[in-house]
From TrEMBL:
Keyword list, A-Z: Hydrolase, Protease, Thiol protease
Similarity comment: Belongs to the peptidase C2 family.
Catalytic residue positions: 57, 82
Pfam annotation, one family: Peptidase_C2
Keyword Protease: yes
GO cellular component: cytoplasm
Keyword match Plastid: no
Gene3D superfamilies referenced in this protein's UniProt entry, alphabetically: Cysteine proteinases
Spans traversing the lipid bilayer: none
Taxonomic lineage of the native organism: Eukaryota, Metazoa, Spiralia, Gnathifera, Rotifera
InterPro entries: Calpain_cysteine_protease, Papain-like_cys_pep_sf, Peptidase_C2_calpain_cat
Protein's UniProt name: Calpain catalytic domain-containing protein
Length: 94
């Protein structure tokens, strides 16, 4: 589609999460197109979850950052954009 090199990752198969995080950060820094989705049950198609996300729907990853909480814990968060741009939005914490 873009003439670029495509690479896929299943988060269940990632052995070194820090390396994956670094790889994603480098891709975003170089303006690569990064996306994600939640694998649906084979009998479902684009099933809405209680948190508002849609299984089987593609989301654009627009940022990935580490955030230090008031407890001094560092968490990694990913900002995703729904390309539909409709009322289907995240309803979870944060």
């Amino acid at each position: 589609m873009t003439g670029g090199i495509e690479e896929s990752f299943n988060t269940k198969d990632i052995k070194d999460k820090d390396q994956f995080w670094q790889t994603m950060g480098i891709a975003l820094k170089h303006d690569a197109m990064v996306g994600c989705s939640i694998t649906p049950d084979p009998t479902e198609r684009e099933a809405k979850m209680t948190n508002g996300l849609i299984k089987g729907h593609a989301y654009a990853v627009t940022a990935a950052v580490r955030v230090k909480l008031t407890t001094n814990e560092i968490v990694q968060i990913v900002r995703c954009r729904n390309p539909w741009g409709n009322e289907v939005e995240w309803k979870g914490a944060w």
